[in-house]
What we know:
43% helix, alpha/beta, Trna Endonuclease, Chain: A, domain 1, 12 strands, 331 residues, globular
Amino acid sequence: MDAAEAKALLRDANEDEPVFLPSSILDKITLVDIPDEVAIEVGLLKDGIIHLDWSGRLFKDQDQIKGEADYTWTRKYWYSAIGLEYYLDLVRRAVEVRNRVYGDVDITDYEDDGAYINMRFIVSTGHKNLGKAYQYVKSLCQELEETAENSVDEASKRLSEIASRLSGWGSQNLDTLVDAVEKASSNDERGRSLEELVSRLFETMPGFTVKDRIRTATEEIDITVLNDSNDPRFKRESAILLAECKNWSDKCGKNEFVLFKEKIDNRSNRCYLGFLISWNGFKDTVTKEMLRGSREHTLVVPITGKDIRAAIRNNNFADVLASCWEKAITT
């Protein structure tokens, strides 16, 4: 879509349906291009489905463009270490403080029906350019979420420490953990054993700091790694790395690969490298998917159980990780 097509969509729009525009053309749209009472949502149409970049809408209000942030979430799919009501209460308090100090935000709706919580607030941007208004709203929303996100991280870290201590984390050597991964009697035991094994291997990497099983509102990441490596291969990578473990009886396929890549993309542009560990290897569809996405910035590095066993046997996880990384970028 180009600017001319976007402006035509806006001219023909009505107040009952939002207009979906890609973020790439927002800078070319100004206040005069937006009719009164028309809402704009930012996202891309892929395979017949709109993928939103941000949950909310932009609209014209007299001499500026405003944004309405929409936090409509359900408890059913909330996996954070703190409850949904506590998380959104922290965001709401941040909005109220911002309103008192700057007066550029205003809560328009807050409702908790037991299953869903809905919160909306209006952001006055002061901008007449749609791209600048969008970036202002997104940046402000991220700022308002910071306290709640920090609380989630602290609670997740504390719960992870307690769970690790209760489950005997660190009491087994790596060879024993390999046996546990291969011989455990339950899926949960196999998964936890592989997660501990991989976490402890990443902890041996200079400059890597492992944070275990961080839960978010919509997904679960097995392992989060903070990257402060001086290794030239990883130093230029993102500050946050993700790793996900799959200890299945079958090989990992394309669908799991694509879902993990989406998790990486969902880290607010703070992450673009992830390690997908599949104990029993990968199907050919994964290699084809890697070739198809080889021009993209996001990189998923496949690691197999064979790779892990070799690293432990030869005490060279750093070399194995670098080899897997090099193979992924040349695929």
